[in-house]
Design brief:
- This protein is an all-beta fold.
- It has one domain.
- 0% of the residues lie in helices and 44% in strands.
- The structure holds zinc ion.
- Zinc ion binds at residues 4, 6-7, 9, 34, 36-37, 39.
């Protein structure tokens, strides 16, 4: 569990917003954003590793 650095809202794997930005099957980026304030928290390439 974590907290958003922007709005201090609670974030976890079930509430975090994931937006897939696909460039095909091999190159796929996932954008993670806060469900409360929609701030972008990070970008992951491929599968969730954290
Ligand atoms: Zn937030």
């Amino acid at each position: 569990m974590a907290n958003c650095p922007h709005c201090k809202g609670e974030i976890n794997l079930t509430t975090i917003k994931q937006e897939k930005k696909g460039f095909g099957i091999i190159k796929q980026e996932i954008l993670y954003s806060c469900p409360h304030c929609s701030s972008v928290l990070g970008v992951s390439r491929g599968k969730w590793t954290g």
